[in-house]
Specification:
Keywords: Membrane, Transmembrane, Transmembrane helix. Helix content is about 60%, strand content about 5%. It has about 425 residues and is mostly helical. The strands form two sheets. It has a two-stranded antiparallel ribbon with strand order 1-2. A two-stranded parallel ribbon has the order 3-4.
Length: about 425
């Protein structure tokens, strides 16, 4: 059953590729649009010569001017923030929660396709080197891995921090943007018509500072900046796996706090075969409940989530109120009345010769009645102990000090348990 469920969700993960066409098309458009943005902002800054003459610092023998700092902000920080906003809008619904398409019961299956693509590219790069078609596939696979990692991070329970995931997207966008700048500044395949525009835009100072900070050679810079997002995503996944292991060991969670769309960790069964049979269904219901609330558009996500959380176990103690004391043991009471003679009948008193085992039989009857009462109450309460509070009973009525059963006015022994009545 579990294997079939995994296969179904793997197919669902693959089917998401059709809905993620925006991602692959967006990468191609962003590569071109970003080039136009760089040229436009660089040429705009070139219209202010005073920015170039304002020196802010000296780094590795090169002066850092105000124009270089502004260019880095416009080329790296601005587009990266826009990327974070766009990806979050695609992965979240209008309530700010994870989109329904990514809410798999096994979130790790979201990473299967991009992980397999990048692993295949790694093996091919060892055999073939780094041809540009393979670099393009690695670029697409890396971006896809980052997006799926963000969805995975929203879905899991442990180390699910949306600001951290947004930071992952931001750093990845900065790395890829830097790779584009390095490629345009150092690649030999740039057209001669475009080179003067790039020089006038002032790309070289930004690229030189980036290479100095990273300490890599220009020939290795582009593949490195493309690989950085994949490495960061892998590091997050590793730490998430390590952080989630103690949570699964501490199962079950007594009062978990989670967002709509967030999935509780798979817990080992607790309390017998019934829990084994119901645990997948209950786990599915926990995930389904927040989804239905989102579709209704209500604003009570937090309150509903708390109500869906697991309730704490029973305390093991049941307290009876005074009015419930007589109703708590109806079999014993009815048994005592059923054995009493009718009001109009004449009966002779029992003698020792007639019934030599009166005390034993009474105790046995009381034990049987108590067992019947216990088995009846267990079905309704699931608790272990009963605490009786007889203080509120009628003061004129006598009760047995052993079992709490009501006594007739002239009784010498309890009709339920046979205990002698104290004078």
């Amino acid at each position: 059953m579990e294997r079939g469920r995994l296969g179904l969700e793997l197919r669902e993960s693959a089917a998401l590729l059709r809905a993620e066409t925006w991602l692959f098309v967006g990468v191609g458009l962003a590569w071109l649009v970003y080039g136009g943005w760089v040229l436009a902002m660089g040429l705009l800054l070139a219209q202010f010569p005073g920015l170039e003459r304002t020196v802010l610092a000296t780094f590795a023998g090169r002066t850092v001017t105000l124009r270089t700092v502004l260019a880095a902000g416009l080329w790296l920080v601005g587009p990266s923030l826009a990327t974070v906003v766009l990806i979050n809008r695609r992965l979240r619904n209008r309530h700010g929660n994870l989109a329904d398409a990514y809410r798999l019961d096994h979130p790790s299956l979201l990473l299967a396709i991009p992980g397999s693509v990048l692993l295949g590219c790694l093996l091919l790069s060892i055999i073939l080197g780094q041809p540009w078609p393979l670099t393009v596939v690695v670029l697409l696979g890396t971006v896809h891995l980052v997006v799926r990692t963000v969805a995975y991070g929203h879905r899991v329970y442990t180390l699910s921090v949306p600001p951290l995931l947004s930071l992952l997207v931001f750093v990845s966008a900065v790395s890829l943007s830097t790779g584009w700048l390095v490629q345009m500044d150092t690649a030999s395949g740039v057209s001669s018509e475009l080179s003067p525009w790039l020089t006038q835009a002032g790309i070289s100072p930004v690229v030189e500072i980036a290479l100095k900070l990273t300490g890599v050679q220009p020939s290795q810079a582009t593949p490195l900046f493309i690989a950085i997002p994949g490495v960061l995503a892998s590091v997050y996944l590793l730490f998430q796996l390590l952080a989630g292991t103690p949570v699964r060991i501490r199962a079950p969670l007594s009062n978990p706090q989670y967002r709509p769309g967030q999935r509780l960790p798979i817990m080992p069964p607790v309390g017998g075969s019934q829990n084994d049979d119901e645990s997948p269904t209950a786990e599915r219901d926990v995930d389904a409940a927040p989804d239905s609330r989102e579709q209704t558009g209500t604003g009570t996500d937090t309150e509903d989530d708390d109500s869906d959380a697991e309730s704490p176990g029973h305390t093991g103690t049941r307290v009876f109120s005074p009015d419930e004391a007589q109703a708590a043991q109806p079999p014993a009471h009815e048994s005592g009345q059923g054995n009493a003679p009718p009001s109009g009948a004449t009966t002779e008193p029992e003698t020792a010769g007639d019934d030599t085992g009166t005390g034993t039989d009474s105790e046995t009857a009381g034990t049987d009645d108590t067992n019947e009462t216990t088995s009846a109450t267990e079905e309704a309460w699931m608790d272990d102990t009963s605490v009786f509070t007889p203080g509120g009973r009628d003061a004129g009525q006598a009760y047995c000090g052993e079992c709490g059963e009501s006594l007739p006015p002239d009784a010498d022994t309890c009709p339920s348990c046979g205990d002698p009545v104290d004078g």
